[in-house]
Amino acid sequence: MKHLMLVLAGTLLLLLLTITAVASFAAPSPEAGDAPLLIVTPAEVTVLVPISTAAVITRPLFIDNVMTGTTLTWSITLSPSAEIQLSAAPLSGTNAATVNVQIDVNPITATGLYTAYLIVSTEPSTTLGAPITIPISVLAVELLHQVYLPVIARDHGMLLPPPPLGLAFISSAKYGGNETRYQRALAVNGRLNRWPLYWNEIETQAVAQPRIYQWTAADNNIAADLNHGLTVLPILLFTPNGLDTGGSRLAPLPQIGAGLHARLNDTTGNRPAAPASVTTPPQGLYLSVFNDGTDTPGPGKSINPDNRWAHFVNAAVNRYKPGGTLAQQQGWTDDRGVRYWEIWNEPDLDVFFTGTITDYARLLKVGYLAARAADPQAQIVLGGLVHWQQAGWFSALLDLLGHDP
Question: What is the pLDDT, as a whole number, of residue 7?
């Protein structure tokens, strides 16, 4: 979807830069009482290097006590080898923490697997699962070839450490997230999380209670993402009932990431008789963005409340921007918040958007103006495209935008 990197080592295709094997433990028995339970993820770490190369690689470990109401004090000891020097910070703590492990690899002259160890010990001695030994392994190969899909290189240089990755659905407002998924993403240097922020699930009573938004699920997920150090890319999409301009309110909603086979094969048997109403352009889209009857931004101007798409985008950006409503509630620093906003998903695929190219150009423009009115540093991202269904769609969109003064 973005820059996807695969690594070829000799004739082996290695998709695992970091091997994550999550340790599992039996649930504590009732007689275990209040003893804490130690969990360390991942349960082993493997990194890939070419021979005769020195490198310092950082990997996160998550240490946790999963028994609420108890206190667990942990400490780390390191068992390096001639080829691998380890360091970790912090070396001790209470209950839960993320530990950054540095793997300092000396030039290795022979291919093979080299291992050092990190041992997590605990107090009290009754801690379940402790101590835990984490193997830190280095797989040395003769040569690393970097292959990009698509073949777009931006001078990433050596693979070590791996470049940041953008991922979809590490978590989402609709389904939430869990610590295992977060740690797996961080282990492969996943740093951007793209997920849908469904307008129809936030403004659920668009006619009876206009411009009343339910933010709780989005608040929780954005806070969790940002607290894990991720950059968040919400996708703003789906027209609420009552603001739709066609389609069927009974048709199943298209799901991002679901039904890919049917969509690629374009089989009519898997399509509803009428498209879902949420995929239609919203009412009022062509009304002015600002309250003075224009689309021209300026000091002191407010959003036209009758352009409901503009109002929603502006409200979302005001809530989640650095220094916005959520940041103030969380007590975050001025730099923590959402700066990137994707406008719809796959607007060139009729399963997701049934408007015209002109409608999407307007959706994009209104979203841009409304977002920048809330946050002048907001960055607007074009909806991810599929390209294959409507030939020339993207070129036509660029032509429309290019002629917009």
Answer: 31
